[in-house]
């Protein structure tokens, strides 16, 4: 089961669905957005242009419609961390995905960001097993949790277990 992320705090039901596939045609992600937030599909795809094909290539969301911002993430951990970086992390350029998370946590601590403790905890989990698929899954779960709570206030305390 892919991690489910909530990339908006919009309470509306989604009206549009967009997917992104790799060059090998494997599903990378599927996002459900309302008309107001449809532009986020372009950012998720790595574009800053609201007319990006990810925004235009949408289809009506099937009933029952999930909440706006629901994203099913099928990406590898490094790609998913890049996706989080494009949407909400202040992520300085770094080497590996683990180094990127550590750099984001350090920057968040330096600027006293409300999600600094959560990012530090996520980086610590990532450092505990960068090659362990169970650690990958936990990191993605924690990032999704922090992302969902970011728009609605400071994240709740991290539960690294």
Summary of the model, kept short:
The chain has 161 residues and is an alpha+beta fold. The chain is built from six helices and five strands.
What does this structure look like?
- Strands 1-5-3-2-4 form a 5-stranded antiparallel β-sheet.
- By secondary structure, the chain is an alpha+beta fold.
- It contains 6 helices and 5 strands, in the order E-E-E-H-H-E-E-H-H-H-H.
- The two termini are 19 Å apart.
- The mean pLDDT is 81.
- The radius of gyration is 15 Å and the shape is globular.
- It folds into 2 domains: 1-74, no CATH class; 76-161, no CATH class.
Distance between termini? 19 Å
What fraction of the residues are assigned to beta strands by DSSP? 5-15%
The number of domains: 2
Counting helices, strands and paired strands, the structural category is: alpha+beta
Rg estimate, integer Å: 15 Å
Count of alpha/pi helices: 6
Biggest beta sheet attributes: 5 strands, antiparallel
Beta strands, count: 5
User: What is the 3D form?
Assistant: globular
């Amino acid at each position: 089961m892919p991690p489910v992320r909530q990339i908006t705090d919009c309470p509306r039901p989604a009206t549009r669905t967009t997917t992104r596939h790799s060059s090998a045609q494997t599903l990378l992600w599927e996002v459900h957005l309302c008309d107001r937030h449809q532009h986020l599909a372009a950012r998720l795809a790595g574009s800053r242009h609201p007319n990006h094909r990810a925004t235009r290539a949408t289809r009506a969301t099937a009933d029952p419609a999930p909440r706006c911002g629901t994203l099913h993430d099928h990406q590898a951990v490094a790609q998913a961390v890049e996706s989080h970086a494009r949407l909400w992390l202040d992520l300085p350029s770094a080497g590996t995905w683990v180094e990127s998370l550590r750099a984001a946590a350090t920057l968040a601590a330096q600027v006293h960001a409300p999600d600094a403790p959560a990012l530090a905890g996520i980086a610590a989990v990532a450092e505990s097993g960068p090659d362990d698929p169970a650690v990958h899954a936990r990191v993605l779960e924690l990032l999704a949790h922090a992302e969902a709570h970011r728009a609605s206030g400071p994240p709740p305390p991290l539960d690294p277990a």
